[in-house]
Every structure is written in C-alpha cells, then in structure tokens.
Amino acid sequence: MRKLLCAFVSALFLTMGFVSCQSDEEIKRQKYITEGILLYQNYCANCHQPKGQGLAALYPPIANSDYLQHKDSVICLIRYGMQGPVVVNGKTYNRVMPAQPQLSDLEVAELVTYIYNEWGKETQLTSLNTVKPQLENCRPKQ
Ligand code: HEC
C-alpha cells in the first residue's frame, strides 16, 4: 500500500524534477524501529525504564551506555541474558539479567535496531543477516 502510494507520488512529481520517496531500506528501518519500541516496552522497560535511563544501582542505563560499542555482546545478552559485574559509564552493576529465549531472531534484530537508532547514534538498521549468525555463535552449548 505504502509502495503503491509512493509510486503514485513519484509519478506525480517526476515531471517537476523532484522525487522524495523513501528507499526500501529506509522503510524497513522505520518498521524495525516501530516494532522495536513495542518489544522494548514489553520486555525491557520494566528494568531499564521507558527512556532507557536505568534504575539506580540496580539496572544499568541503555541510553548513552558506553556498553553499546559491543554490539555483538548486546545481540547475545538480549536472548541469553547476562550476569557478573559489568561497568557501564563508569559505574559497576552486578545483577542477573534473565534470558529471554522466546524472542525470535527477527525480534532481536528489531530491538537492536531500535536501541542503536534511539540511543547509539546509528541511522541504519541491524539486519537479520547480522543477528542470526551472532546468535548462533553465542548460543550456550549444552
Ligand atoms: C529483570 C530486569 C531486566 C530486564 C527485563 C532486562 N534487563 Fe538488560 N540488564 C539487566 C541487568 C541487571 C543488567 C546488568 C547485568 C550484569 O550485572 O551483568 C542488564 C544489562 C543490559 C545491557 C548491557 C549494559 C548496558 O546497560 O548497556 C543491555 C544493552 C541490556 N541489558 C539490554 C536489555 C534489553 C534490550 C532488554 C529487553 C529485551 C533487557 N535488557 C531486559 C536487567 C534487565
């Protein structure tokens, strides 16, 4: 539907020399972000808080977290959880973040896209192709 509208609008404006249609990649990014927001509210905001600011000494912030430079680890901890001491923006946290094995590969990609666009200064999506092999790499061995 959106594509159709887009094609129609392009056709309309083509003769005037400007086409302002979003690329497929951009539409996909927006979709991931929209889904990511909902997933974040359902699965993360309880602890990390709605604006990602964290909660006291209990839950580290995600907003402007220097931990976000380890994207491979972030992908893994969303599905498999995290424990042991971790330093975020100079402060030490040491509690258990539970695993969320019910999150699909796509949902992890959407969450990571949202987090990095909202709080990691990125303007691109983190694709399923990035997330899938990484989740396979860090899957706990039985
Ligand atoms: C039950 C509370 C809880 C929930 C729910 C939770 N986390 Fe966490 N999260 C934690 C704790 C506690 C840590 C620090 C773990 C440690 O001390 O090793 C953490 C660490 C992190 C970190 C790395 C440190 C930082 O702040 O940058 C990220 C990123 C993160 N969580 C993202 C998420 C996302 C995304 C979700 C939702 C899918 C989520 N968390 C759900 C409690 C939670």
Structure description:
Keywords: Heme, Iron, Metal-binding, Signal. InterPro entries: Cyt_c-like_dom, Cyt_c-like_dom_sf, Cytochrome_c-type_DH. Residues 1-21 form the signal peptide. With 142 residues, this protein is mostly helical. It has one domain (23-137): Cytochrome c-like domain (Cytochrome Bc1 Complex, Chain D, domain 2, Orthogonal Bundle), CATH 1.10.760.10. 51% of the residues lie in helices and 4% in strands. It contains 6 helices and 2 strands. It has helices at 2-14, 24-43, 45-48, 71-80, 105-119, 128-137, and strands spanning 86-88, 91-93. It has a two-stranded antiparallel ribbon with strand order 1-2. A hairpin with a 2-residue loop joins strand 1 and strand 2. Helix 2 packs across helix 5 (105-119) and helix 5 (105-119) crosses helix 6 (128-137). It is globular and about 55 Å long. The termini are far apart. The chain binds heme C (HEC). Residues 43-44, 46-48, 59-62, 65, 67, 74, 77-78, 82-84, 86, 88, 93-95, 97-98, 100, 111, 115 line the site of heme C.
Tags for this model:
6 helices, Mono/diheme cytochrome c family protein, heme, mainly alpha, electron transfer activity, Cytochrome Bc1 Complex, Chain D, domain 2, binds heme C, about 140 residues
Summed up:
This protein has 142 residues and is mainly α. It has helices at residues 2-14, 24-43, 45-48, 71-80, 105-119, 128-137; strands spanning 86-88, 91-93.
Distance between the termini: 45 Å
Q: What's the level 1 CATH class?
A: Mainly Alpha
- The domain tally reads 1
- The beta-strand count equals 2
